[in-house]
Structure to design on (146 residues):
């Protein structure tokens, strides 16, 4: 994947973090919910959630995910990330991602990043399918593992 493609993918994800949906597995049934991922320039992707959420329970049983970012209103730009979600217990990593979030996490976790209710998920990217209207067909890439 060219660097310019990676930059375009990151841009689509960052611009549409409020329009992202995470699919997990609940037995043999997919479950989709809205999330607000934190995306870094190096394509690292993080999701914050409650430790007691159903998605965390599902990820403990099966870490495979699909995370989709879609530009409203017509989906002219879209990125689908296929991979796995790892639960990150490290408080220093939680603090770092907390500081990067483009929204106020204190609204959801008033006790801060050290709260036992605050769960950090690292998305391990295995494959990305993405498109921009006007640039041809959808593209597939498999970024280097970070």
């Amino acid at each position: 994947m060219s660097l310019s493609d990676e930059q375009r993918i990151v841009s689509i994800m960052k611009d549409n973090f409020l329009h992202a949906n995470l699919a997990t597995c609940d037995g043999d049934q997919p479950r989709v919910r809205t999330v607000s991922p934190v995306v870094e320039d190096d394509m690292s992707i993080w999701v914050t959630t409650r430790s007691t959420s159903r998605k965390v329970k599902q990820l403990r049983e099966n870490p495979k995910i699909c995370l989709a970012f879609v530009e409203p209103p017509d989906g002219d730009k879209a990125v689908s990330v296929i991979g796995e979600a790892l639960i990150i217990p490290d408080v220093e990593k939680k603090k770092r991602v907390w500081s990067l979030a483009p929204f106020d996490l204190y609204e959801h976790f008033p006790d801060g990043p050290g709260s036992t209710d605050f769960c950090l998920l690292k998305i391990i990217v295995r494959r990305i399918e993405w498109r921009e209207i006007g640039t041809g067909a959808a593209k597939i890439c498999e970024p280097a593992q970070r």
In short: The chain has three helices and eight strands. Residues 3-15 form the longest helix (13 residues).
